[in-house]
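Sharing a chain and its predicted structure for anyone who wants a worked example. Both blocks are below, sequence first, tokens second.
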Amino acid sequence: MSFRGKLRSVAIDLDNGWDDLRLELSRSLGGPGPLRILAYRGLGRPDRLMVRGRVLVDRGPTTCETDGQPPEPIDELIEAPPRTEQSDPG
């Protein structure tokens, strides 16, 4: 195996280990909470299907703190990006 292949293997092992550690910590604290599955566009043929995606903790809609006053349009525009789902095909 080439150096690049070994480095890739180590990086994958580290990433999997980190994911396992975070999951165990989350479970020990009562679980991750409600989840949301974001599927990316897949591809397929009659004998094979590939669909990618990711599972995220659903934090619900964000709130705008305006001391009880209706939010200004500019405030809503600023708050919009965190509420927008962005898919990452990679």
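Comments welcome. The first helix runs from residue 3 to 28.
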